[in-house]
Design goal:
- It is built from 9 helices and 8 strands.
- The chain is α/β, with parallel strands linked by helices and 262 residues long.
- Helix 5 runs parallel beside helix 6, helix 6 (167-176) packs parallel to helix 7 and helix 8 (230-241) packs across helix 9.
- The protein is globular.
Amino acid sequence: MISYPEDCILKKALIFDSHAHYTDEKFDDIRDELLNELPKNGVCGVITCGCDYKSSKEAISLSKKYGYMYCAVGIHPENLDSGTTVNQIEKLSKYEKCVAIGEIGLDYYYNSENKQEQIKVFEQQILLAKDLSLPVIVHDRDAHADTLEILKKHKPKGVVHCFSGSPEMAKEIINIGMYIGVGGVVTFKNAKRLPEVVAIVPDNRLLIETDCPYLSPEPLRGKICHSGLIPLTAKKIAQIRKVKTEDILKLTLQNTKDLFRV
């Protein structure tokens, strides 16, 4: 059995994790047990994201196995050397439970020497998503200016996940018509700007996520994250917005369904 903090035991199915990575090797020893248990603990939906051809195919396989799970396919900026092509992603995107092109975007934290290649592949995948009438799931790390410029240029539907920008950037993302994805980082003591962002995001533009197996919310920071821990994140968001935790779970559940049309 997977253990849950008391705050995470829900009587209602209100959790829709808008961004997870259940293909990650950190889940290899517990994946089946965990994914079978999640619906018994309030999880009614999960979008597991690919980062290249291999993980995108694996995400599709998981969505076939678990009825509550959906998938996204894409080329993450850290995986440009995987050999994955946009044509391959297009073929994978035709699967009926593929609800987005993602995870895609820019990451200058790990590699800023290939910025132009990152931008090229990012834009190609945005255009693919628009052609397919699918939303995008955007990764932005230390690349706020270029990410915002590209999103303002193409105006895709989608979400900037694990949002790390300023409140001013969040407002511009929202003005495009996109969503803001918030995960366990909002519970960290060193989270400075994110609580400010959470306070201003309109109800209909907020998504909740894990980015699991990483970024477990406090007090479990550093341990393997999973969708069943989302109530800890929702509780913090609710405190910031001065509402009930259940209210946050309900509105982010509906927002996720609206964006990804599930």
